[in-house]
Amino acid sequence: MHATPVTDRTNLLGLTREDLERWVVERGGRPYRARQIMKWLYKQGVGDFDSMTDLAKDFRSLLKEAAEIRTPEIVTAQTASDGTRKWMLRMDEVQGIEMVYIPEPDRGTLCISSQVGCALDCSFCSTGRQGFNRNLSAAEIVGQVWLANRELGFQAGGERIITNVVLMGMGEPLANYRNVLPAVRILMDDLGFDLSRRRVTLSTSGLVPQIYRLAEDSNLALAVSLHAPNDRLRDTLVPINRKHPIAELLAACWHYIDEQNGRSVTFEYVMLDGVNDSPEQALELVDLLRGKPAKVNLIPFNPFPGTHYRCSPPAAIERFRDLLNRHGVIATMRKTRGDDIDAACGQLAGRVQDRVTARLGSKLVSVVAEV
Ligand code: SAH
Ligand code: SF4
């Protein structure tokens, strides 16, 4: 494996339309050049400046000198028998992440990462167990989608292959707000990937101040990792709860929906045997969510080496789901995908609005490169 050379050129994949216009103007170009570049990048899937034939030669030379279109590098790629794809990507000399694509008859969902590792230390999460390494840049976040599109055979003018993107891989996206927001803007820009607000989902463990901020800045679909119906239990599963308890978190969620005129928040609830899966706990959850713009996704726990948790038995998950539904809280249970490439990444791509869970082993991937 060779080290990715570091350059001081600007990676255009990280620039929103406004940033790219500014970048072009600062170099003496006209703003519409930015739109031309974006069309090449995102509508044509073109990743080299020489192919951008409607740009003047001089401008192309300038681009080659000052800019680059750089994606993460693929280390390995796997395809499961059900069509689920998984890539291990290296982000720099030592760090890696995984990315998952889940095809379904009516959609294709890509699960991407926002950080290498995570600082929040949820007790059932293998990423959390490993600690935090670094934030991904906007270009590294967008680059995952750009790369997946290319690997999946995207053709200009052809059908969309990636219809949905979920920020549910490694990391806490709201802890990397500065880079996640521009990345999301590029995903949703009609000159970018042109995904609608319901097709870009951000999953958070509950960083309350950033949810309020997000309500000002974006209208994407919000998923919240709840996992427990009371503070006593949630404090032990999702430690950020000690700082931002459930009542505060839910208030932020309802504010988000009001502000953005959204349909509902999806609450993720990982099913842990004997921990959070009893009928009493289902009823406690009903008390929190009944009558609110909320849906619940029950997720089978994905075990990883060293964890003391087990996944609830299927009957317990069904009972939990039925109780919620019977009391007026919409709940679904995920089937798993990509089982036979369980490989490494315990990630849960496509879980939120996508009615499936990619079951991919332990979510982390720390690649130690042989440099
Ligand atoms: N940090 C964000 C997004 C990444 S985690 C968050 O916590 O929401 C994406 C989802 O995977 C979260 O709902 C998280 O709780 C869940 N998850 C983490 N480890 C898991 C495991 N071992 N099995 C099942 N779901 C898990
Ligand atoms: Fe971080 Fe999400 Fe894992 Fe919690 S569940 S440790 S917030 S990645």
Describe the structure.
There is one protein chain. The protein has 371 residues and is an alpha/beta fold. It is 32% helix and 21% strand. The longest helix has 15 residues, at 246-260. The termini are close together. S-adenosyl-L-homocysteine binds next to strand 10 and strand 12.
What's a concise summary of this model?
This protein is of the alpha/beta class.
Mean residue pLDDT? 88
- Bin the helical content: 25-40%
Specify the number of helices: 11
Say which molecules are bound, naming each kind only once: S-adenosyl-L-homocysteine, iron/sulfur cluster
The ordered H/E elements are EHHHEEEEEEHEHEHEHEHHEHEHEEE
Radius of gyration, CA atoms, in whole angstroms: 21 Å
Biggest sheet layout: 10 strands, mixed
Shape: elongated
Strand order of the largest sheet: 3-4-5-6-9-10-11-12-13-14
Which structural class is indicated by helix and strand composition? alpha/beta
Strand residue content: 15-25%
What is the end-to-end distance? Answer: 6 Å
Number of strands: 16
Low-pLDDT residue intervals, each spanning 5 or more residues: 343-371
